[in-house]
Amino acid sequence: MADPHQEIEVKLNCPRNKVEAFLEHPMLHALDLHARPERYRMMNVYYDTPDLLLRKSKVALRLRRIDNDWVQTLKASGRRQGGLSTRSEWELPVTGGALELDRFRGTGADLVIQALREHGMESALAPQFRVDFVRMAWLIRPFPRTQPMFRTEIVLDRGEIMAGGRREAVSEIEVELMHGRVKDLLRVAEMLKRDVGLNEEPASKARRGYALLGKA
Question: Within 10 Å of residue 165's Cβ, how many Cβ atoms?
């Protein structure tokens, strides 16, 4: 099983004129047992200090509303090769629309939070930009005969990034490893690229948000 605190995914750009072809791809019917396609409305607020200490440290801190529930996420710096990224991630529920950094206590995110506190920067954290989108998600088992244990989640995110009075459309696919081998994850991504005519998206939503602020 994939490490619950490690995110391994391939991100693909999915222009509006490719969405219909993606939604018709037969792979989306290879659902895992008892799994059903899901749809969520997500509102994301990314936080940083005035001097963008988190961005400089290649860390992302996000507060996300999923329908009526809230979670906070901290993503550490990782490795990226084209659209494939591997990074540590800690995601925890919170009670409302505000960060609760003490909930990260006892996780690998402690070091980041401790560094913020040592520099007196925790109180300076403030929203920098928003990313709002609708997510469609499929948990699939695409190779049941040859790789029966392999699972991947495929999501389609469509919405926009809002930063500094500017907006940028988001339309992308994420193929995330849930269980199995990275080589099979890459195989799924390559099939979508080939069949739908997609390209890898090397920039995360956070990176594009900072770019709109002129801080890429």
Answer: 7
Contact (Cβ atoms closer than 8 angstroms) between residue 42 and residue 136: no
Q: What is the pLDDT of residues 159-193, one digit of tens each?
A: 999 999 999 999 999 999 999 999 999 999 999 99
45/63 Cα distance (integer angstroms): 5
| DSSP letter for each residue of 68-120 | TEEEEEEEEEEEEETTEEEEEEEEEEESSSS--GGGGTTSTTHHHHHHHHHTT
Domains of the chain from N-terminus onward: 6-212 (2.40.320.10)
Q: Give the pLDDT confidence of 119-156 residue by residue, as tens digits.
A: 777 788 999 999 999 999 999 999 999 999 999 999 99
CB 138 within 8 A of CB 154: yes
pTM of the model: 0.91
